[in-house]
Design a protein that fits this description.
The structure is a single chain. Helix content is 28%, strand content 31%. It has 159 residues and is α+β, with helices and mostly antiparallel strands. The structure holds coenzyme A. Coenzyme A binds next to strand 4, helix 3 and helix 4.
Length: 159
């Protein structure tokens, strides 16, 4: 468990700006921008599964997921601020998601550039299904790991 000063809670629309700021901070480390759109994020908070890690009222971690057309849960983003990494905050975010979608398999796509995330997912019980080139159809050359954590059956396979 992370330290008592970090609390994992379901995100509210009022958290949206802080989540977007966190995603920008984390993904700018990889020179990525445009990772989330404010309307998409608002929809995920309202209709999907978004949990945040709060430390002294600041959002220092988030996990963003939706239920898919095949009734699995897809994790679209999982981020922890640099200074809070390696302290079980990411695990606690995943645990909260798993607890709230009990009985549902979880899938995610992780770029092979993010070795930390691939390793962390494996420690969290994820298995590798296969590699997918340009998984989001945006013209990237890199491969993505399709990872899944079975909880019942896994119905999705991205073609
Ligand atoms: C991936 C990320 C969210 C993990 O968050 P975190 O709070 O550091 O993770 P935790 O401390 O809870 O660790 C979770 C598990 O992953 C493992 N892990 C964490 N960092 C690791 C690393 N660098 N190498 C190998 N394993 C690692 C931990 O050992 C832990 O497993 P354990 O509890 O069995 O020991 C965080 O590193 C991050 O935001 N990275 C940049 C953004 C990113 O790559 N996001 C993933 C997008 S798909």
């Amino acid at each position: 468990m992370p330290s008592d000063s970090v609390k994992i809670v379901k995100a509210k629309l009022a958290d949206e700006k802080q989540i977007l700021d966190l995603e920008r901070r984390v993904w700018s480390e990889q020179n990525l921008s445009d990772v989330a759109d404010k309307y998409d994020l608002g929809s995920f908070i309202r209709f999907g599964y978004v949990f945040v890690a709060k430390h002294q009222n600041k959002t220092v971690g988030a996990i963003i997921a939706i239920r898919t057309n095949k009734d699995d849960v897809f994790v679209g983003d999982w981020v922890v601020d640099k200074q809070h990494r390696g302290k079980q905050v990411g695990r606690a975010l995943y645990q909260k998601l798993m607890d709230s979608v009990k009985g549902t398999s979880i899938i995610t796509l992780v770029s092979s550039r993010y070795k930390t995330s691939v390793a962390a997912h494996k420690k969290l019980g994820f298995k590798e299904k296969r590699l997918i080139r340009d998984a989001y159809g945006v013209g990237e050359k890199e491969n993505y790991h399709l990872l899944y954590r079975k909880n019942g059956g896994m119905k999705n396979d991205v073609g």
